[in-house]
Every structure is written in structure tokens, then in C-alpha cells.
Amino acid sequence: MARRLAFWLGGGLTSALVLTALLGAVWTPYPIDAVAVVERLQAPSPLHPFGTDQLGRDMLSLLMAGAGTSLLVAAAAVAAGAGFGVPLGLLAAFRGGVADEAVMRLSDLALAFPALLTAAMIAATYGPGVLDAVVAIAIFNVPVFARLARSLALPLTGRAFVQAGYLAGKDALGVVVVHVLPNVASLLVVQAAIQLAFALLAEASLSYLGLGVQPPGASWGRMLGEAQTYMRLAPHVVLFPGLAIVLAVMGLNLLGDGLRDRLDPRLWEGS
Amino acid sequence: MNTTPALVLRRLIGLATTLLLAAFVVFAVLSVLPGDPAAVMLGVGARPDTLAALRAEMGLDRPVAVRFVSWTGGLFVGDFGVSHTYGVPVLDLVLERAAVSLPLALLAAGGAVFVGVPLGALAASQRGGVLDTVLMALAQVGIAVPSFWLAIMLSLVFAVGLDWLPAGGFPGWEAGVWPGLRALFLPALALALPQGAVLARVARSAVLEALHQDYVLTARMKGLSKGAALWRHALPNALIPVATVLGLQLAFLLTGAIVVENVFYLPGVGRLLFQAIAQRDLITVQGIVVLVVTAVVCINFVVDLTYLWLDPRLRTRGA
Questions:
Q1: Closest Cα in chain A to B277
Q2: Cβ proximity of B53 and B42 under 8 Å
Q3: What distance in Å separates the CA atoms of residue B246 and residue B240, rounded to the nearest whole number?
Q4: How would you write the pLDDT of chain A (271 residues) with one tens digit per residue?
Q5: Does residue A75 come out as left (phi exceeding 0), alpha (psi in the -120 to 50 range) or beta?
Q6: Between residues 242 and 261 of chain B, which touch chain A (CB distance below 8 Å)?
Q7: Nearest chain B Cα distance for residue A125, angstroms
Q8: Interchain proximity B22–A113, CB inside 8 Å
Q9: E strands, A58-117, where?
Q10: Shortest CA distance to A153 belongs to which of A80, A78, A91?
Q11: Which of A194, B148, B207, B264 is the most exposed place for a label (fewest CB within 10 A)?
Q12: Is B159's Cβ below 8 Å from some Cβ in A?
């Protein structure tokens, strides 16, 4: 019962996040660059339900625009991580030998670089920017997907339906795409939801530190970084962006957990 | 190749390979990829002769292979180069700042265990009950909270609002252990609570699994109460997965400390890293990244070995 509730709560929160991001991309109550110094640091009111920030901008509009940025950065990083990681993991599982060893060593290497350090290195060389964040988070995601795809595909290599694929004249690529991928896809999707939550957190941290989204782009992490100095005068400027991050991450985590409960046959028995 | 020494040797070779490759990647990103560090440091409009002089001073006029070998060779003897901004060896700078960052990460790890493990065990003991549901819901929220935001909120409440603890800065250990710990308390708490939430979930499922084992059932049949069987028999065995996760969390805590240090203006490795980025002090950035990556890789290696030591079945599988 509690699990089902958690799943629906996760789905609801994630849908709300996506809808807010989509709406924020086409419409916000106020323009996000509408600076009005006389209206700075106003507490929440009917005109500004989440108050205004240190430049007098409407916090609700910034949060709506920030949802899109945060989600886009996180989704791009996870998609890139999966895009490179899954083929590498499948290659390791089906080729074995040197290819397997190389993929595993490379994933050890990538895991040794926390996203923060990669972003710091890129920022030090090329200057800070949103691409730093995407690349850094993607690099950390590649080994996660490679290892998962490998471990899911490995038991399938000797299965009859895979062998039948070869006998039917398909080459290794054909077998992997037609027979293996559909069998491992559901759990990869579950992992993607969980990695998306992690990527959102990482993007927020990087943007907070100034290594991610740059002005004039809106991002929840950057809102926190810029507003921190004013928290004594107007606590709402740090409260709402943080709550937005918590709700978004929690939604994705709950959705990922719920999907795993439903899709992972390994969890079915005894549950 | 299934004996323990052979396995340990294999892991050691893996460790050395990863570290060498990591050093190469760091060197490649910061020194070889398109982009001239000297030009970046001097900014646009630098005079060609000044640029050439700085390139020579930084050793950038030497062939790439020579630079890599000399830099990596230096790493082995603790020579990480000299910071361009501070004019002191990078290693000295980092070690000085580690006096803040390491205690912070360790305090946070201790706090995460102190909060997470008992609550996880408590939830397991009440499986399916109200307390279990409430604790696991709290853990779900805790996992979603970014530690830097928690740090901001804690400082807003306990430093700005109630004035119980300092809102930032570090008096230095020379000022005494107590003032130092007071300055690290809120940052450590901000790091500890989200990781404690992760540990609580791990501890709960590990205790639940242990509760179904024969030795716990035997203890119960011998007349031990449910609580005593849980705390005396199930929990100690459940600590194996908890220790593994904690080891992996240490790596997260190290980088988490970098972020939280910036919230509390703590003069740790994280602040040093961001000052170095702002000042384009690439040799310092390079040194910090290599040291933190080494720490992460070594922590994972120790976790691996601990796992091998705690779970004898792995030794014969050649995993």
C-alpha cells in the first residue's frame, strides 16, 4: 500500500516537474529578466506567490524557468551517459576478453572522477559554462550504465533465443539490437530515472558553485548561490529553490523505486 | 588465480593502472587539450614576449611527453609543482587545507553512522508499522535534500536565527579543539543527514535480511527476545553491507565537503580549489584533482578488500 502510494506520488511529482518545465519554457507570470530594484526581496504575496529575489524578479517565474534548465541539463547528461554507456556495456558482455577488460578498466577510471572534479577541471581550462556540467555529469553516468548493461546482458549471452538469432543469420549487432536490448531496456529505464535524480542534484551543486548554468540562464542551484547573501533579510529566497530541488529529486527517486518494484523480476519473489 | 593473495595482487595492479590513467587524464585535460594555460592565466591582450616567458617558466615549451613524465615522476615523490598564486608547493597548500576538510568528512561519516544505523535497525524491528513507514518516508526526503541547501538552512536557523553556532569561518585548530569542532558542527551535520538517510535504508534492508537467517531463528528459539536477537545477532551481521556503503560514501563526502565548505566559508581543500579556478592557478587545480581522485580510488580499493575480508565466499569465486 505504502509502496503503491510512493509510486504514484513519484509519478505525480515528476509529471508536475515536466509540466512546469514545459510551461516555463513558453510562459512565465513575469519575464525572468524583469529587474525591478524597488520590489527586491519582497515576501510572498498574491502578486508574487513566492516573493521576489534580490533583483526584484518574480521568484515563481524564475523557479518555472529553472525547472526547464535543471531538467534539460540532467536529461542531456543522463542521455549522453546512457548513449555511450549502454553500447559499451553490451559490447563488453558480448565480446568478452580484451573488450570486456578495457570497458571495465575505463569505467573504473571514469568512476574515479566525481562530477564536481571533472567540472572543476573543465571550468579551469575553458571557463565555467552549462556544457561543463553536462559533460561532467555525463562522464560519471557512462560507467554506471555500462556496468548495468553488462551485468544485465551477460546472463543472456548463452540463452536459446540469443543463439537462435545467430542461427537465423543475424550478426552480433543485429542480435543485440533485436533480442538483447528489449530484454534489458526496462531496468535501464529504471536506472535512468534514478540517475536523473542524481543528475538534478549534481547540476544544482555545480550551478550553486558557479560551474554550471551561467547568467542570464535560470537554474535552481544558481538561484541559491546568488541569493545566499540575502537569506538573513529574506529567507524565502533560499527556501523555495531548495524545496523545488527536494521535490523534483524525491519525485524521480520514488518513481525509479516504484518502477523497479514493478519491472525487476529479481525483486518479485518474496516481496 | 582464486587464492586471496592472487586476488589482492590483481586488485593492486588494477589500482595502479587506474591511478596512472587518472594522472594521464588530468594532465591531458589541464595541459594538453586545445587551450594554452599561460594564455588563459594572462588573459587576452597579453604581450607575446610575456606569454613566451610564462610558458617557459611553466615548462610549457617542452615536448608533451617530457612534461608528462616529469610531472608524473614528481607525483611519486610528492612533488605536485608550485602554486602560481601562492608561490608555495601545491602539496603543502593542500595538506594545510586538509586539516579542515578531512576532519569535516570524517565527522560527517561518523554522524551518518550515528543517525542512520540505529534508525535503520529500529525501522526493521517495526517492519510494516507506523514507525517504519515514518522513518523510511523521512529517509526518502533526506536522500533528496542537497547537502549545500541543508547547510544554508541549518545556518539560517542555528547560526543566524538562534545564534547557537558560528555561521561560517574557521578559527583554526590553534584556537583549540572545541572552537574548531563548533565551526565544523553545522557543515558536518549538513553532510551527515543525507548520507545518514542512505545508510538508514541500507541498514534496514540488511537487518531485515539478517533477521531471516538461521542463527537469529536459533537465538529466538533459545528464548532470546525479539529485540535482543535483533541488536545482538542481526545488527552486527548487517554491518557488512553498511560498512561497504559507508566506504563508498566517504568518496561522496570528500567532494560533498568541497561544496559545503563554500557555504560556510571554511578554508578547506574545496575553497582552495575554487580560488585556484578563479585565479586560473592550473597547477594547483591539477594537484587537488589528482589528490582527491587518488583518495577516491584508494577508498574504493580498501572497501573492496574489506568486502573480500568480511565475505569469505568472494575469495573462492575469483570475483
A1: A124
A2: no
A3: 10
A4: 667 888 899 999 999 999 999 998 898 888 888 788 888 888 888 988 888 888 888 899 999 999 999 999 999 999 999 999 999 999 998 888 898 888 988 888 888 888 888 888 888 777 788 888 899 999 989 999 999 999 888 888 878 888 888 888 888 788 888 888 888 888 888 889 889 999 999 999 989 988 888 877 888 999 998 888 888 888 898 999 999 999 999 999 999 888 888 876 666 554 4
A5: alpha
A6: 251-252, 254-255, 258-259
A7: 6
A8: yes
A9: none
A10: A91
A11: A194
A12: no
Structural class in CATH, domain B90-315 = mainly alpha
Position A45 in a domain: no
Gap between the Cα atoms of A75 and A55, Å rounded: 29
- Between CA B126 and CA B132 the distance in angstroms is 6
Nearest to A121 among B29, B280, B296 (CB): B29
Q: What is the domain-level CATH number for residue A151?
A: 1.10.3720.10
* pTM summary value: 0.87
ipTM reported for the complex, 2 dp: 0.89
Q: Do A231 and B262 touch (CB under 8 A)?
A: no
Q: How many residues are present in chain A?
A: 271
Of the residues B201, B277, B285, the best mutation for testing chain A's interface (the one with the most A CB atoms within 10 Å of its CB) is B277
Which range marks the domain in which residue A94 is found?
Answer: 2-18+60-264
Question: N- to C-terminal Cα distance for chain A?
Answer: 13
Whether A44 maps to a domain, the answer reads: no
Cross-chain CB nearest to A125 (options B22, B33, B293): B33
CB contact under 8 A, B146 and A201: yes
Indicate the domain borders of chain B.
90-315
